[in-house]
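Pipeline run #58 for the internal structure catalog. This entry was flagged by the ingest filter as a single-chain record with no existing model, so it goes straight to prediction. Upstream metadata was stripped on purpose; only the residue string is passed forward. Reviewer on rotation: M.T. Logging verbosity set to normal.
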Amino acid sequence: MRLVSLLPSATEILVKLGLEKNLVGVSHECDFPETVQSLPRLTSTHANSKLDSAGIHKSVLEVMKNAVSVYDLDVELLKSLKPDFIVTQDLCDVCAVSFSQVEEACRELLDCKIISLRPKRLGDIWNDVRQTAETLGVKQSGHKFQQEVDERVQAVRDRLAVAGKTKPNIITIEWIDPIYIGGMWLPEMIDIVGGKVCIAESGQPAPIVSREDLAKIDPDVVVVKPCGYKLDQTLKELDLLKKQIPAWSNSPRVYLVDGNAYFNRPGPRILDSLEILAYCTHPNLFPEFGEQYKEGIISLRPGLQLPSN
């Protein structure tokens, strides 16, 4: 069985299901685990990812206005790989190659089938993993993953139930300029870790908000995890972040998190993201998660200052 993945979360799902050996091609953004980076790259982007967040946003909007897709798909390479299945998505044309591009390419690959993921909520992510496992003949691996989901989510809930913590107001920032607030599965995650959701709604796209909108809210915790940004990229925009968010009176705890690895990829590492969120929400209750994921988290001091060494 020969598999192609056209988005990072799909690659991580296939690897989690024990199918890395079947992968013959991936997207240009697939970077986890590192071993998949040597596979043929089937996509490229028209957007300029070297700009700051405002520039990238404008670049994407411009490309979408003037082109069919933000991404190119190398159809000739795809044909040469002769995949049996292509795993892609039909949710966001900014996140990966459009579904119509994949459908068109598959018309010339008569024996190839498409598995399309469309997650909006946590349950959709878990269902995508199970259904992909069933389609690809590794149903037991899907059940095993669901057991892991149930155990890790319940472990967080159990500790919160014993502690009886109050619900802090939580904001997750998905993009810096303009400011997007994490939607889709993020509100459910906030609820699981014992927080109160601000602005966003479960299953709905990330809303754009103004600095004035944010000033009306008094968050206790702010998690900044720009979509696709590694920590070093977010750090470069720290001064911009200071301009974009208001000086809240209650001085919330602010964390920078690797948005490339966590929160924004609807695959197995959403479980890791949940544990990171539990730590950010209740650091004294979940200290082990702070240690486990320390390479992907920076806790800022008041005034959005970097921690002292």
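catalog note: The two ends are 50 Å apart (CA to CA).
catalog note: The mean pLDDT is 90.
status: ready for reviewer M.T.
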